[in-house]
Structures are given as structure tokens and as C-alpha cells.
Specification:
Blueprint (H helix, E strand, L loop, with lengths): L1 E6 L4 H17 L1 E9 L13 H29 L7 E7 L2 H11 L4 E6 L2 H9 L6 H4 L4 E5 L9 E5 L6 H14 L3 E8 L7 H10 L5 E7 L3 H11 L4 E5 L3 H7 L2 H11 L3 E4 L3
Parallel strand pairs: 1-2, 1-4, 2-3, 4-5, 6-7, 6-9, 7-8, 9-10
Antiparallel strand pairs: 5-10
Helix pairs in contact: 4-10, 8-10
Length: 277
Amino acid sequence: MKKILFPTDFSESATNAFVHALEFAKIVNAELILLHTFEIPVYDSQFFPENYAVIYSSIELAKFEMFKDEIPKLRTIAMERNLEDIVIKHRLMDGDLIYNLKNAVEEDNVDFVIMGTSGVSDWTKFFLGSNTNSVISEVKVPVLCIPADAKFKKIKTIGFTTRYREKDKAELRKVLDIARKTNAKVKSLYVKTSSSDVSDVTVKEWENEFANENVEFLVLPSDEVKETILDFILYKDIDVLTTITHKRSFFESIFESSFTQKIAKEVSVPVLVMHET
């Protein structure tokens, strides 16, 4: 059985993402591990010499009580969607979210991370961040990011962006495996710029190699890469967009604020970020 780590702060956007996490767990036959983290404020012990420990204990207790109160609400959502059979486990950890998330992935042998994003600031925080504070740079498993207003619907079409590198084939096969489980079609996009170095022969080789799979290869000539990806999402009815962490600079350009704002406002599709293997 696969394992999905779902970090939550029990906000509205996280609760919306929980529905996606439940449905995805059903598709890939996985269990969910709910992760809630909190940071204890730093106090100067010289000002609180006697009740220093009491302050920390009370904060931890309050967080535990909140955690305990919120879990039944999520279980109710699972029951309402007839998904109460999905195994749900819990982790309550104090400290930095990214640090705890990375540790949880390693300790629990997690296969996927699914998380909600409430706006452009969240996208910037999680995708761009610093080299050490970014989920994408720190977590080496696929991350499915759910915009706050992306309501779950049956996955019929999965978009896959590629540059026709040999190593992209392994990620495409993973996506095709997911697609088979939900009877979805995969539409692969390559934006061919004026400086492109991908030959027609390479494209044809891919088409031949994946001829027996439910995948369509699209090569769109344009020097406006980001806008072409946006049009691809809009006009090809993409339900989930898959991208691979190529060069960090390219990835950052895709998720810079203005473009992300367009995705969030105009299309609101979940983004599945794959890692190079």
C-alpha cells in the first residue's frame, strides 16, 4: 500500500485539499498520514524562570486539543464521500513545517505529498522559497498542490509537460500508471521555441514507444512558454497539470507570481510536481 502525506493547518484551503487527498488515495490504493505542525514561540527564560515549562506545556496541550477536535471533522468528510475505509493516520509535530515534512516523508516512507495552497503567497513560499526552505527542493517525492478553489472532479485528462529528455520517460510512465487507474487520458505538451534543440525524429521515437498507451503528444511552436502552458490547460480541459523539476530556474519561472496568479484565477487546476530520477 502506498502512503500519502497530507500536511494540514485545518484551514478552508487545507480542508478542500483533503477531499483531493482522499480521492487520490482511493485511486492509488494508499493510506493517508495527516501532518499538523506548530511552532512554539521563543521566550527568554530569564523573564519566566519559574513558569517557563508551564508556558510550553500549555501551548502543546492547546495544539493537541485543537488537533483532536479537528480530526473527527475530516473523518466526517470521508464518510460523506463513502471513503471511510481509507486508512488515516496522524502526526502532530512541533517545529518548522518544511523540516518536519521532510522528516515525515523519510521516516514513514511516503510516496506522495498532497497539500493545499491558499493563494499566490503560498505558491511562492512552497515553490520558490530559499534553497533550503522549499518543499520542492527538500522533498524528493511527487507533490500534488491543490489551489484553494479547485473543487475535486473526476480526473479525465492529465497534462504532462516535457522537454523530450530520456529521463522524462520514467516520469511519464508513472503518470500513465495513475491515468490507468482513473481511466484518464494523458496529453503531453512540448513548447517548441525558436531555440529548441528537440528534433522531429525524437518526437516520433516517443510516439512509437508509447503507441500502446493512452497518451497524445502535442508539440506547440511558441516563444511564449508560460502563456502556451496556460492555453494548454484551458483549451485541452486539463484536470491535473504535471511538471518535472528540470532546471530550478525554469521551474521558478513557471511559478513566479504573475503567472501563478493567472493559474490560480483562470484555471485552478491541481499541479503534480515530479522529481527527476
